[in-house]
Amino acid sequence: ILNVEQSPQSLHVQEGDSTNFTCSFPSSNFYALHWYRWETAKSPEALFVMTLNGDEKKKGRISATLNTKEGYSYLYIKGSQPEDSATYLCALLHGSSNTGKLIFGQGTTLQVKP
Amino acid sequence: DGGITQSPKYLFRKEGQNVTLSCEQNLNHDAMYWYRQDPGQGLRLIYYSQIVNDFQKGDIAEGYSVSREKKESFPLTVTSAQKNPTAFYLCASSMVRRNEKLFFGSGTQLSVL
Description:
The complex is a heterodimer of chains A (114) and B (113). Chain A is mostly beta strands and 114 residues long. Chain A has no helices and 11 strands. Chain A has strands at residues 5-7, 10-14, 19-24, 30-38, 45-50, 56-59, 62-67, 72-77, 86-94, 103-104, 108-113. Chain A is globular, with a radius of gyration of 14 Å. The model of chain A has no long low-confidence stretch (mean pLDDT 93). Chain B has strands spanning 4-7, 10-13, 19-25, 31-37, 44-51, 54-57, 64-66, 76-78, 87-94, 103-104, 108-112. In chain B, strands 2, 4, 5, 6, 9, 10 and 11 form a 7-stranded mixed sheet that branches. A 4-stranded antiparallel sheet of chain B has the order 1-3-8-7, with no helix packed on it. The termini of chain B are far apart. The mean pLDDT of chain B is 93.
């Protein structure tokens, strides 16, 4: 059974702090790694889809890196703002999976205090 | 605006009752999915469909059924055989090509009376 682990489970930071969290996954048969942001009372929204080892993606103050050989991805938020408060989900697309049969981690919930 | 619409937002089920959750998309996506979320757990796949009139079981399909008669619609029925149906249900869609991101609906919270 494939397992995707996210840490920490929750995080509280002050406005302006930079933060990062981790997604760990089995490195064998890797195909793609997705990151989603899920704000309270809204739908999850895609941040990044990453496929190549060493890949780095950036969207505003949020960036992500990928290491497929060791099986982890980091999500960074620079200068956190209250509107960054959300649950961040990562999901693994395994080599043996059909399109979209993603395996999700349990999420990291970020709370940014003004 | 293009998107995915789930209804109802809240649903209550009595013992022995089947209930159906609606999911409609106007994104012209071929693939649609149903996920279940329980507290402290990641989203788990119930069923998915990549083409009309065809669907496959996900990891936790027991006690659920689906249909895909139209490209836009992928309703989920929670049957009486599902003994622990209380959960948050998310519908999603995507293009079929690999590496395509998912687009999600806003979810349905199902509770047992």
